[in-house]
Amino acid sequence: MKKLKYGIMGTGRIVERFVGAVRSSEAGEVYAIASRSLENAEKKARELGISRCYGSYEQLVSDDNIDVIYIPTINSAHRENAVLALTHNKHVLIEKPMTLSREDTKMLFDMAREKGLFIMEAQKSLFLPITEEIKKIIYDGVIGEIHLLDYMISIPEVGFKWFYDRKAGGGALFGSGNYILAHAMHLLEEELISSSGHATLSDEGTDLQCIFNLKSEKGILVDGKITTMVAAESGVTIYGEKGRIFIGDFWKARHAEVFVYGEESRQVSFPVEYEMVYEVDHVNRCIDDRLMESPVMTSKVSLSSAEHIDNLWNHFLKRV
Ligand SMILES: NC(=O)c1ccc[n+]([C@@H]2O[C@H](COP(=O)([O-])OP(=O)(O)OC[C@H]3O[C@@H](n4cnc5c(N)ncnc54)[C@H](OP(=O)(O)O)[C@@H]3O)[C@@H](O)[C@H]2O)c1
Questions:
Q1: Whole-angstrom Cα distance, residue 317 to residue 99?
Q2: What is the distance in A from the centroid of ligand 1 to the CA of 201?
Q3: Cβ(76) to ligand 1 under 6 A?
């Protein structure tokens, strides 16, 4: 496979883990990093051992050697950053949520398709070996027919200010809602319908916590809880007629536990240092195969998630 050169837009907290994942991948190379400030770009490049850095995103996307731009900027900037990268004929891997609306997400997929470029929303949980193994266990009928998925994401210590800024795309739902939606659609292999929910809003107008529920087209119920207000065990429990499966921190999981009623539980484990490596390997293969979208993290999943998040946010505002 051809080596693919990654350019990283921004110097946020997630960048270090992404760099580790690209360096552990089969065909990825960390080529350059950019910040809106040259000083920040130089500092991050030094820290992470990246040989090229730029003091603007425009300079990054203008580098002809770069194949793929990774966009881990604040949520509200994703749309504009992706348009910039696509305009300069770069493939794009864009952090979740892809944009703040279904309309903008659709515009990015349309633009990439018109230009013959690959674009994908980063949803690393879909590419984890543990996710594939648990799907196999489910479809082999080990815990019987599935009727309920119960998700919890607890982030009791929010480490960044823009979480409280609605215009920046902050809040529990926009930050983590699509982790749940994409994971559930991937496990169930069907779309979700009828979203409804409640939230606790901050004085600044973002949600500090939210709960929501949906059902799959076949009638499986999905319930999601995201909180920054209480500490709780994060994960998903998949309930079937003969047992249940618990995947702690399902979006970056290395372990899961399978409980079949009347039997001893068993652990499933896939240790790895940088869990994003599977996602990066997938992106590299898609680009090598000249695909414009991933067959796993599809535009359908991104668009459906964005539509539910739009709908849920409107629900929350009406119910305050
Ligand atoms: N997949 C995952 O595991 C995972 C985990 C955490 C976060 N994320 C996602 O990654 C993205 C970044 O999250 P993070 O926690 O790394 O955020 P962060 O530490 O706050 O970094 C965000 C970066 O955005 C850039 N930026 C661009 N426009 C900006 C603006 N107008 N105001 C402020 N910053 C701006 C900044 O880079 P410069 O100043 O250098 O230009 C900044 O460093 C989010 O979309 C988040 O949802 C993904």
A1: 19
A2: 22
A3: no
